[in-house]
């Protein structure tokens, strides 16, 4: 039995639903090792079709093709891959070398796909290349070679896995006559070495060097003519034993992707830069969120006595105490005052001035872990409260009685007020005297309006108050504080009585403060002005974060689309390479892996670049902000960096899957079609 047997081979190309073209008609052929067969025929006679079928690139045929006794028509993907890797080598008219790979890498490609280790790969490729006279060209790119040299590299690639059959499609079609002769010598040698070489050719000159010439016309074999045998060959060239058939490794795929990306370096840098913008904005946004949050927490912890929880009346708690048991309409109470709709706004809540009732205080006393309650009074005015000093009125916004919630850190100069004394904020003091300190010991007249009634009295400034932060109400607003006793006295002087509107709840232990705050919240009481302002601020920050996330999300989406497009272009550009890889035994999976590796690398580089740029911006931004406000605001963490890189890789790989699948699905025959 011959090495290759073709029995009753028929090939039809579907043209339309009920129309097909009969391209190979009852072909009956057999070939043996050592033969050098030329297939000749007019253009369109079916030569390429026959080659594709014999080479296992086209499995849609009728009839039987037995290679070494095995019917290739029945091969599963795995067997076909092994067939391509071990039994068959292809040589093409247009060489089909991968342009961005070196000569050596082009030849080792088939072994790379078989996961042969690097050393063996190189040694074998060099052996074959040296034999073909290409010793000095290992590191050259195909574009740096002459036509004959290119074809010799392609022959080396076909030979390196020591196949039994070489299929050559017009191997000298693109070469001048002298180079053609050299290439034909090599091809003859291959046949003499005992391989079966099947060539397609137009040229009688090429055919004359064969041991057999098969003529095909209109899909039929019309002539099969034996020529003289090749002379016995002495300089036999044998390749070491075949390697075990494994598959393309992950690292080899990454290396191939890297080589390709290096070739299009400029383009890939631009893509990575584009991709990094999205990642950078996400990381900066996270860093900003954390920075602001850290700042708020630090500031609040610094200036707040941890054992104290502040409670304020709200309209909700007020309604509860009015206690008629009827549900209030959200639109407001009968006085026409706005209802709950507005109380949700922390800033509005803060300007409410609702006094505590007996029942409220009783309720507060029942909260678990509360040891003691201190009542105080604060009010916000839109500048109608004033301090008069040396005949000049200075308006301020925040008035309050001092409480245990204040610490020494709140006193910038001077001391806490005693009876008959007040403390004022630094900015107010600066407006009254040359330096804030000059105001200490000075007498001022404080004029307030409580529930519409004017109140006034003369007091000595004992100290300058600071909230110690930019967020505390008193540094955001000009403020005046006095003791509860002084305030009570001030009211009595004006025939009024104090109605406390702030309660300070002392916890038995600082660790229980949060429980108390939660309970206050559940009962509907408002928190401290600092908490409330912080809440307002956080709310604004949240909105800001959503907007930024939106922008960052859009840029990530744009990056993804960009990567998708670039990889699609890459697939189109590399159609021929994909065809070659398939012809030499690359599985669909391998092709997909090469392209996915590329998108993985783009993602990795974009991510690294994004993290790098974000770090630089954080660094610069923090230095600037620190100089202006004495604090940093962009808090990058390793977690954010890692998250950014991972997100970049994931997005990129997802975007890469579609083009990779397209590449994997490419038909090798289409991909390798020589443009005739
Ligand atoms: P050759 O290689 O001898 O020039 P081909 O094997 O390429 O010829 O083509 C043989 C015949 O099959 C031609 O008539 C061609 O038009 C037809 N043919 C080739 N490929 C296809 C295809 N994919 N669909 C339909 N007809 C095809």
Give a description of the structure:
α9 (265-303) packs antiparallel against α18 (529-573), α18 runs parallel beside α21 (638-665) and α20 (588-629) runs antiparallel to α21. This protein has 3 domains: 4-247, Rossmann fold (3-Layer(aba) Sandwich), CATH 3.40.50; 263-295 and 538-675, no CATH class; 308-508, no CATH class. It is rod-shaped and about 135 Å long. The two termini are 36 Å apart. The chain has 676 residues and is α/β, with parallel strands linked by helices. Mean pLDDT is 83; it is low at 324-344 and 469-475. The strands form 4 sheets. A 6-stranded mixed β-sheet has the order 6-7-8-3-9-10. Helices cover 47% and strands 21% of the residues. It is built from 22 helices and 20 strands. The chain binds adenosine-5'-diphosphate (ADP). Adenosine-5'-diphosphate is lined by residues 13, 21, 23, 41, 43-49.
CATH T-level topology of the largest domain:
Rossmann fold
Level of helix content?
40-55%
Count of DSSP H/I helices: 22
CATH superfamily of the largest domain: P-loop containing nucleotide triphosphate hydrolases
Low-confidence runs of at least 5 consecutive residues: 324-344, 469-475
Shape: rod-shaped
Query: What's the domain count?
Result: 3
| CATH C-level class of the largest domain | Alpha Beta
Termini Cα gap? 36 Å
Mean pLDDT: 83
- Spatial strand sequence of the major β-sheet: 6-7-8-3-9-10
| Biggest pleated sheet | 6 strands, mixed
